[in-house]
Design brief:
Blueprint: E1 3-9, E2 13-20, E3 25-32, H1 36-39, H2 41-56, E4 65-72, H3 80-89, E5 97-101, H4 102-110, E6 116-121, E7 125-131, E8 134-140, H5 152-167, H6 175-182, E9 192-193, E10 196-197, H7 198-208, H8 219-224, H9 230-253, E11 259-262, H10 264-269, H11 279-285, E12 291-292, H12 297-307, H13 314-327
Parallel strand pairs: 1-4, 4-5, 6-11, 11-12
Antiparallel strand pairs: 1-2, 2-3, 6-7, 7-8, 9-10
Helix pairs in contact: 2-3, 4-12, 5-9, 9-11, 12-13
């Protein structure tokens, strides 16, 4: 029996699955964020190793694993793949570690088709045109400073700015007490010191204490108040419009094939809203039915089998999807 390890190393969590050549999931594991760019190489190696350890479990023959497919965003600088290979060799896994991009893996999680488009919005945001199973072009994904339009970071940044503006005398928003509560600050105190409300100074200090991408933790607040607060609704609407532009550019590059949607902000946030709020995004999606997926784990397994020379047809894809889903219960 041929065996493969597939890992989806995301910024928030890492998922690993052990699958056979027929697409059956033999074991699964999960750990903390394993993206080397956001977590750092040391922590990423630890996270990937922990997930693989759980996935192989009490396997009697870890040396049977032919290859390890490691899907993640960013580069493998710092010897990431090589260090993972060294760590898992101690577990008995000696197959080569092969890298793949997170956009390609996410697309392959939704469909076995070779052509189409993926749109991801989590902490960051990126679109990708896939052709013959290969990522031929990305759109955005340029990071918090230069892009990531419609991402969790962008939404969280808008929330933070709106609350600061409210306390500073601008338009009021129901986001303010929620953000202040998030940082353990009083929502009613407006005493002034050195010409500035003290609570505003404390909030500014707390916000600047975060890494920029950590502002994404505030994104869910905008979705929570989308029907009760004009400021929150405008933030979500603008984010959907931004993602529609990313999707439209991706579709110009690859007009044919399915559209796969991923990332917690997109799948759990935007897609839960009423269609009227998402009209630009739905228009950019076109006539086909988008395929939302929770992560890139199935796709990483698809890529692992393909790298091993195994054709992933509809039947194998269905087996992978069902068995990996069942392993998480």
């Amino acid at each position: 029996m041929r065996e493969f390890l597939a890992i989806d190393a995301g910024g928030t969590s890492t998922r690993a699955v052990l699958v056979d050549g027929d697409g059956r999931c033999l074991g699964s594991g999960r750990s903390s964020g394993g993206n080397p760019t956001s977590a750092g190489v040391d922590r990423a190696v630890d996270a990937v190793t922990a997930a693989i350890t759980d996935a192989i479990g009490a396997s009697a023959a870890p040396e049977a694993v032919e290859l390890v497919l490691l899907a993640h965003a960013g580069s493998s600088a710092g010897g990431f793949h090589e260090r993972v290979a060294e760590r898992i060799a101690a577990l008995g896994v000696r197959g080569p570690v092969v890298g793949a991009g997170d956009v390609t893996a996410l697309f392959a999680s939704g469909t076995p088709e070779p052509d189409g488009v993926a749109l991801i919005a989590g902490t960051g945001a990126i679109g990708g045109a896939i052709r013959d199973g290969v990522l031929v072009r990305t759109v955005d994904g340029t990071g918090w400073l230069l892009g990531d339009e419609g991402s969790g970071f962008q939404l969280g940044h808008r929330v933070a700015r709106a609350v600061v503006d409210d306390i500073d005398g601008g338009p009021s928003t129901r986001l303010t007490p929620l953000v202040l509560e998030r940082f353990g600050l009083p929502s009613t105190a407006r005493d002034v010191a050195d010409g500035r409300p003290q609570v505003l100074g404390a909030l500014i200090h707390a916000l600047y204490g975060l890494r920029p991408v950590q502002l994404s933790v505030l994104a869910p607040l905008a979705f929570a108040l989308v029907d009760a607060d004009d400021v929150a609704r405008r933030i979500v609407r603008d984010g959907a419009e931004a993602l529609s532009r990313v999707l439209a550019r991706s579709r110009r590059i690859q007009p044919d094939g399915p559209l796969v949607l991923g990332g917690s902000v997109l799948v759990e946030g935007y897609l839960a809203q009423e269609p009227s709020l998402l009209r630009p995004l739905l228009d950019a999606a076109g006539a086909g039915t988008p395929i939302p997926v929770p992560d890139g784990t199935v796709g990483a397994a698809v890529l692992a089998l393909r790298t091993g020379g195994i054709e992933v047809d509809d039947a194998v894809f269905a087996t992978l999807t069902a068995s990996i889903r069942a392993s998480r219960r």
